């Protein structure tokens, strides 16, 4: 949110906040390699889900998992940029903050892969056996 919107209310402020959010999302998709990798993998997952004709519930699970990865990667980027803003010099606590934020994405990604395997393997076995 811009500083000019700090103590304002109303529909215009709401619309501006969506614009700011879109700018942040665009920045992450254009500038963050990990987000590009997650996006590419999400496309593969969604194409596979269409091809395998997964159920509505399984689609919902996939959407929650993929959106969770995106949200965590966005938060990780925000934390990293905030740490960079606070200190340009190497500091062990700054490194720890960045590492811990990245670990949240890593943990979620591991479980996303497990969920994908649990969901897709039965369909793939049925299709190819």
Question: Which descriptors would you attach to this protein?
Answer:
4 helices; phospholipid metabolism; 129 residues; 0% strand; cell membrane; transferase
What does this structure look like?
This protein has 129 residues and is mainly alpha-helical. Helix content is 84%, strand content 0%. The radius of gyration is 19 Å and the shape is flat. The model has no long low-confidence stretch (mean pLDDT 94).
Topology of this protein?
Elements: H1 11-31, H2 33-52, H3 56-86, H4 92-128
Helix pairs in contact: 1-2, 2-3, 2-4, 3-4
Summarize, please.
Belongs to the bacterial diacylglycerol kinase family. The protein has 129 residues and is mainly alpha-helical. The protein contains four helices and no strands.
Q: Summarize the main sheet.
A: none
Q: What percent strand?
A: under 5%
How is the quaternary structure best described?
Answer: single chain
Give the strand tally: 0
The Rg value, from CA coordinates, equals 19 Å
- Helical content stands at over 70%
Q: From the helix content, strand content and strand pairing, which structural class follows?
A: mainly alpha
Mean pLDDT: 94
Query: Which spans have pLDDT < 50 for at least 5 consecutive residues?
Result: none
Distance between the termini: 54 Å
Shape: flat
Order of helices and strands: HHHH
Number of helices: 4
């Amino acid at each position: 949110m811009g500083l000019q919107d700090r103590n304002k209310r109303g529909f215009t402020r709401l619309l501006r906040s969506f614009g700011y959010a879109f700018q942040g999302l665009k920045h992450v998709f254009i500038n963050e390699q990990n987000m590009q990798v997650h996006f590419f993998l999400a496309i593969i997952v969604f194409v596979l889900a269409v091809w395998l004709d997964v159920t509505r519930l399984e689609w919902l699970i996939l959407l929650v998992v993929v959106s969770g990865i995106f949200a965590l990667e966005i938060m990780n980027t925000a934390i990293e940029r905030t740490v960079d803003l606070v200190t340009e010099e190497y500091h062990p606590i700054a490194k720890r903050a960045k590492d811990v934020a990245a670990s949240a994405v890593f943990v979620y990604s591991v479980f996303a892969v497990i969920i994908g395997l649990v969901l897709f393997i039965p369909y793939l076995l049925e299709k190819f056996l």
